[in-house]
Amino acid sequence: MTLPAAAPATFRPSAAQWGLIFSNFLMWGGFFAVIPLVTVHFVGDLKWAAASVGLVLGVRQLMQQGLTVFGGAWADQIGPKPLILAGCLLRTLGFIWMGFAGSFGELMLASVVAGVGGGLFDAPKSAAIAAVTREADRMRMFSLISVSGNLGMVTGPLIGAAMIGLGFRTAAIAAGCVYLLAALVMALTLPALRPTGANKAKGFEGLAVAARDQRFRRFTLVLIGYFILSTQINVLITLKAIALAGKGATGPLYGLSAGLAVLLQYPLLQLVERHIRTRYALVGAVLLVSTALGLMAFAHTFPLLLACVALYSLGTMIVFPSQQTLTARFAPPELVGSYFGFSAISLGVGGAVGNVIGGALIDAGQRLGFEPLPWLTLFVVGLFTAAGLWWALKSLPKAARP
């Protein structure tokens, strides 16, 4: 079936799309209701070594990002729905198990189970969104998905903080049950989307096709630069906020970032979609993020830093739906899951490098007596990334493949 080229004046999500939006809100809310409390409980209350808890959380992230690559390929074989459901159930088990963990080994195993669950539902969820949404509506749909995720990021920590008074175990069980509810929503609203016949992918051949797709490979590798920048909200930006306004600065910092996304992302994307091609919007958004980071070198007060964070957030709002929309456009219809899975490489590598390089740049700037070094370096990384994206997207088709 050929998708229409023009978007309608209004976008009314279907039941399947509303189910994906609501379940995404539940997933992000459940995650942020319990994960920040892991450090509070095991390090603050039980006096475990911070390094050991950091290792547990790092392994969870590694498991999720590693399996995401393969989760997309599996979705092309059996459809995204069973993987999303299985991933939610494993995440439920992992979070509840965390609440009962009494040793490092138990906490590590629970974290691995939770990470495997995330790896199973991450890329298939994006593939399902692309499958149930017309090409013309995808940017708006991915924008709504991002808004729902940010709502979860805002409400999750508040609910977790309220529940910690009842004990970490209660908070972990409640967060696990949220994923159970997300699985129920998906079971009721998401249709079975299964490839059939000659188009059905075999094994991991979909990943091989994505890896051999020179244009998409360039796109994915160049995006590593952007994820190095986006990670800094948790590293350099947070450290600067604390240096300027103390530990209490993290609340306003994250509240501003997530709050702006909730309020502005969808109308901003509608405006951008109406006037700017998706590929140009992505390049411009990366330039906006890098400019905001460069300006942070000269933000010597907390209000000025927050102004730069607002600019930074506007850029990140545009990047996610643009990147997801373009990934779906690169992919043959029968290999959308594999392409989304392969695209996770940019986030995994960029996120890991960004965490390492952020701290290293701070140390280098202090040794050299040049504090703007981290920010100006990231600005240059952003310029190269934007130029690389312009080059990588030059030959991209304007519309989805039939």
From TrEMBL:
Topology term for the membrane? Multi-pass membrane protein
Query: Where exactly are the transmembrane stretches of this chain?
Result: 20-43, 95-121, 142-166, 172-193, 221-245, 251-268, 280-298, 304-323, 335-361, 373-393
State its location(s): Cell membrane
- Chief localisation class: membrane
Protein name from the UniProt record: Multidrug resistance protein MdtH
Give the matching CDD domains: MFS_MdtH_MDR_like (cd17329)
Q: Which PANTHER family match?
A: MULTIDRUG RESISTANCE PROTEIN MDTH, RESISTANCE PROTEIN MDTM, PUTATIVE-RELATED-RELATED
